[in-house]
Amino acid sequence: MQYRRLGSTGMYVSEITYGNWITHGSQVDSDAAKKCVKAALDSGITTFDTADSYAFGRAETVLGKSLKGVKRESYELITKIYWPTGEGKNDRGLSRKHIFESFHDSLKRLQTDHLDVLICHRYDHETPLEETVSALNDLVRQGKVHYVGVSEWNAEEIRKGLAIQDKNNYNRFITNQAQYSALYRVIEKEVVPLSMREGIGQIVFSPLCQGVLTGKYLPGKKPPANSRATDKNSLVGGAGFISGWLRDDVLAAVHELKPIAKELNITMAQLALAWVLSNENVSSAIMGATTPAQVKENAKGSGISLTPEVIKQINKILSPHAETDPRKNQSPNPRA
């Protein structure tokens, strides 16, 4: 496992982050989750990502139990705030009230007294931005959070937040958690250039494009049983999230990558991870898993160096099918 600095900070994160978005509290039981976390630690993964809304808090609870007994200073813990955590009118968004209440609930579920990174899970168009960044800064100054960041904010939203932070001498955003893969590249035109100038490192999710880039989905064929494409019972709708990519033209293009992976003696998943990590603004790529074997295999995606020729070859195959429109960086209203 290789490690990179998170943005311009002095803190290092593992190139592969263990995430539990649709696994803990949903797809796998607590015992299986604990085994996956142990496999992650054994593989050198030190960065763990979750959110207050994942499985309505159960994901944080499971992760907290799985990390119990592990030296706190030996890993980096990330959680996020924004999406609904209850039925109340204030159980969502980025108001000072919700940030403080949900944050402290997260600490209890995660069985810790501090977070390494607290992330705004989306941009809140209803709450004054000054209120949000002020609340985040207070948590940092109280010693309860080391760093703060955002997720899926567009370039203008990030720029506005940084301006308020600089004006008031608040702690700055140091990371953006964005969807990014060889097929989903909406951050490249605006967010990445801004982030590089401002010292913000990307921690990216869905680097395998929901599993499409593993090559297990074939054009003209039904999705494999027990795959994400058939996971209609997931609390977040795994099947719905991936459905837009299960087009024959996309799947046929992905199939063309197999000879490249074979020549490099790596898996398709490792090839996709290596492509994402070839972007110098990416600090880490989030991977989920339902078995220890998957965790160990994903961890091997770290440290693979692709030549410019290979990257060019991959881009030539996938670019015609890739999503690149920066306007796709949108934050739905959590109260809608």
Automatic annotation (TrEMBL):
Top-rank lineage group of the source organism: Bacteria
Molecular function GO labels: oxidoreductase activity
InterPro entries recorded: K_chnl_volt-dep_bsu_KCNAB-rel, NAD(P)_OxRdtase_dom_sf, NADP_OxRdtase_dom
GO cellular component: a single term: cytosol
Record bears the keyword RNA-binding: no
Similarity remark: Belongs to the shaker potassium channel beta subunit family.
Name the record gives this protein: Asparagine synthase (Glutamine-hydrolysing)
Protein's organism: Candidatus Planktophila vernalis
